[in-house]
């Protein structure tokens, strides 16, 4: 069952930091599945701040000569950004300021479910730069959410 908007303490607290979505142990097959998933969303891409057609994750990961940002727009004002830091980890970020209620909350959790199921890997929602201290984990094999009492608990 999907956690509700008020159920996870601090999840969307406007504390000046972002929230991250992490998928670990990604390989080429996962990035290809990520590219396929993007067809379900409105996206925009920039390279070194200049709008460009998205060349695909594999191409982006091979080009380390600049800054990449893929913005994925969910229904409503919610934007999820991917920066393609390393090939072994898919990291996206989201601003808690955009999560103003249950509708936006559900949009984000639905996106995380779609992401994890497409990649067939678990996905964590964490405080910014805190990949080992999740608020929530979605496990696609069982289609379940695991809530953590406090970020960092197991």
In a nutshell, what does this entry contain?
By secondary structure, this protein is α+β, with helices and mostly antiparallel strands.
Strand order of the largest sheet: 3-2-4-5-6-1-7-8-9
Secondary-structure element order, as H and E? EHEEHEEEHEEE
- Low-confidence segments, given as residue ranges, are none
Helical residue percent band: 10-25%
Number of strands: 9
Q: What is the residue-mean pLDDT, rounded to a whole number?
A: 94
Radius of gyration: 15 Å
State the secondary-structure class: alpha+beta
* Number of separate helices: 3
- % residues in beta strands: 25-35%
Outline, from the CA principal axes?
A: globular
Q: Quote the distance from N terminus to C terminus.
A: 18 Å
- Major beta sheet, specifics? 9 strands, antiparallel
Describe this structure in words.
The chain is built from 3 helices and 9 strands, in the order βαββαβββαβββ. The chain has 154 residues and is of the alpha+beta class. It has a 9-stranded antiparallel beta sheet, with helices on one face. β5 and β6 form a beta hairpin. It is globular, with a radius of gyration of 15 Å. It starts with 18 loop residues before the first strand and ends in a 7-residue tail after the last strand.
Q: What secondary-structure arrangement, pairings included, does this model have?
A:
Layout: E1 19-24, H1 28-37, E2 42-47, E3 50-52, H2 57-62, E4 68-73, E5 79-82, E6 89-94, H3 102-119, E7 123-127, E8 136-139, E9 144-147
Helix pairs in contact: 1-3
């Amino acid at each position: 069952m999907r956690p509700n908007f008020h159920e996870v303490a601090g999840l969307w607290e406007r504390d000046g930091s972002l929230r991250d979505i992490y998928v670990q142990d990604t390989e080429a097959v996962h990035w290809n599945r990520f590219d396929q998933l993007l067809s379900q969303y409105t996206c925009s891409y920039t390279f070194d701040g200049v709008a460009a057609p998205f060349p695909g994750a594999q191409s982006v990961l091979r080009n380390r000569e600049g800054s990449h940002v893929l913005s994925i727009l969910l229904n409503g004002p919610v934007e999820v950004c991917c920066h393609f830091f390393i090939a072994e980890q898919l990291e996206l970020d989201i601003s808690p300021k955009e999560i103003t209620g249950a509708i936006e909350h559900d949009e984000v959790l639905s996106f995380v479910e779609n992401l994890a199921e497409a990649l067939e890997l678990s996905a964590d929602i964490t405080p910014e730069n805190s990949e080992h201290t999740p608020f929530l984990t979605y496990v696609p094999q069982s289609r379940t959410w695991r809530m953590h009492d406090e970020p960092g608990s197991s």
